[in-house]
Structures are given as C-alpha cells and as structure tokens.
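User: Let's play a game. I give you a shape written as tokens, and you guess the letters that built it. Ready? Here's round one.
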C-alpha cells in the first residue's frame, strides 16, 4: 500500500499541542520521566517489578529525544536561509502535488514536510541531519557550546564539563534497541547507567538550545 505522507504528518501534528515550543514539548515529557525514575528508584522494592519497569526509561528517553530533534529540524528549515538552502542536500525527499498544495495552503510547513523524512533514531542519524542543516559537524560544534549556568562566569563547554556525555547517550540507545526487539531476560539495568543516560539526554537538549540560539543570532 502506498503511504500517505501528508496524512501521517497531519496526524503527528494533531498529537502535539500547537502552542508549545520544541523545548516545551521536551520538558513536558521529560519531567514526568524523571519523576517516574525517582519513584522507581526509591519506592519500588520488588525485584521483578523493578527489572521490568527499568526497561521503560530508555525507551521513553529515546522517544523524547527523537520527537525533540524532529521539531528542531522543522524549526531550522522554517527559519529560512542558510538552513533551508542546506536542506537541499537531502536528496531522497520527493514533493507530490498534494504535498505542494498542502504547503501552499499552510496546512503544513516546508519544515514539517522535510523533517518527516529525516531519521533521528540514534545519535549518528541526529548528527547527520543536524550537520547538513547547520553546515558543519553538529556534535563537534555542540562539544564547544557553553553549558548554560545561572552564573555566566562558570559557563564551560559541554566537552570539558561532561566528557562522557555522548557515551552515556549511546548506551541508552543500545539498551533501548535491546529492550524493544529482544526478550533480553538476562539483561540487568543498574541505577547509575539509567540515571546518567536520562540526565545526558536532558543536557544534550539544553545545550542544543544554546547552540540554536547562537545560530539564529548569526543569521540576523
């Protein structure tokens, strides 16, 4: 059966609060995830229940990251040049007549349409799409980006402040893949790995927001 990409995009759009920003969407999902983690860590005593619920956290953390970066792709493209020009490098995206008419009637934006075809299932894919859009290696730029702090004098780069961040994120992606596709009855998920991984996704997104603000300031 031929996929109806426009219908897919509109269905996704209808499942989001239209008034919320990409960062608001991320926070709305990650806050209860953190709350659920702390409840799991401190209140759940049964070993079998703990083991089963532990599989949830990597799955949800990855979903939040993918949802956030898809919105990030959209926002960059819809912001115009140079990002919209860079998006021409995505060669496998084909506009059909109904898609063009939907964009013309403002049912969907160009960014919404293109981002629907961009993959964000792991850090490598996120890096590939973001690197194309910003015109430089995304993760390399992100490593140099300052971590936001209430005291500007203590701001340091992500690379110096959290040197193991990307490794912690990759570990959560690996665990998520195993939990989604295997019984994995012998896998043991420890508190430290989960806590570092979930926190790493949060820091990744917060630092990316600083990077996006820098990129938008450069284009003015």
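Assistant: Ready! My guess for every position:
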């Amino acid at each position: 059966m031929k996929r109806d990409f426009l219908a897919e995009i509109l269905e996704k759009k209808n499942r989001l609060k239209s008034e919320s920003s990409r960062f608001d969407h991320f926070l709305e999902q990650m806050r209860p995830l953190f709350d659920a983690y702390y409840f799991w860590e401190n209140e759940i005593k049964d070993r079998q229940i703990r083991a089963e619920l532990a599989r949830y956290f990597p799955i949800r953390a990855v979903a939040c990251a993918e949802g956030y970066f898809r919105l990030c792709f959209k926002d960059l493209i819809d912001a115009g040049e140079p990002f919209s020009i860079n998006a021409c490098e995505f060669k496998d995206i084909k506009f059909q007549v109904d898609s063009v008419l939907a964009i013309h009637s403002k049912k969907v934006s160009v960014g919404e349409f293109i981002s629907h075809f961009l993959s964000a299932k792991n850090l490598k894919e996120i890096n590939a799409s973001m690197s194309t859009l910003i015109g430089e290696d995304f993760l390399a730029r992100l490593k140099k980006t300052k971590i936001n702090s209430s005291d500007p004098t203590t701001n340091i780069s992500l690379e110096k402040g959290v040197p193991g961040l990307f490794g912690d994120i990759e570990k959560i992606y690996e665990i998520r893949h195993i939990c989604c596709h295997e019984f994995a009855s012998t896998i043991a998920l420890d508190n430290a790995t989960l806590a570092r991984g979930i926190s790493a996704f949060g820091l990744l997104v917060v630092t990316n927001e600083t990077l996006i603000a820098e990129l938008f300031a450069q284009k003015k």
